[in-house]
Amino acid sequence: MVRRSEIRERAERYYLQNGSLADIHFIPQISLEASFSDAIYLLFLEYGEQAAEKIARQWIKRNIPYISQQRILYGCVRDEFREILDTPNDRIHKIKHLIQALNETRHKAVQVILCRKKKVIQVNMSVEELCNPKGYYFIRGCSQKDRATLERMFGKTAEFRIEDIQSVSYGGIVLYENVASRNAA
After folding, report:
1. What's the predicted TM-score (pTM) here?
2. What are phi and psi of 98, to 5 degrees?
3. Disulfide: which of 26, 28, 44, 102 matches 74 by Cβ 3.0-4.6 Å?
4. What is the CA radius of gyration of the chain?
């Protein structure tokens, strides 16, 4: 049983790694240790190709349900990946642009402007904390004043999402800006 969330996560992982549809396919791995008995090994030495073909056939017969499951799973991941590519306003695109912008900078900390329900706050965050492929963030190392403001805006856990990030900058240079929030303003 595979949940849609697992399929979505795999598709997002491929997208964040700059994968393509062609990269998403199932490649079965045959365990030769389990298939090579002493008799098969002797046959392999004398009749290499026929023995290898026999091992492969036996492995396929034993693993048809597994192969079918994996082919279906990878087909679903491919469909989800295609959906991500066809939806330009998908949140994963924002996450990818943010991570790319942060990977291009050599700075350890950046200023982040967060906006939720027309309330705006600026906090300092480490680049490492922002390079999160899930798009959920939690500020660990911030001042007590910022923490109190964050807790008022985002709840006791002070978690926020990629949609809450309005911009990320360092020394006045904007590294990332949420286009949707800029157009709404």
Report:
1. 0.69
2. -65, -50
3. 26
4. 24
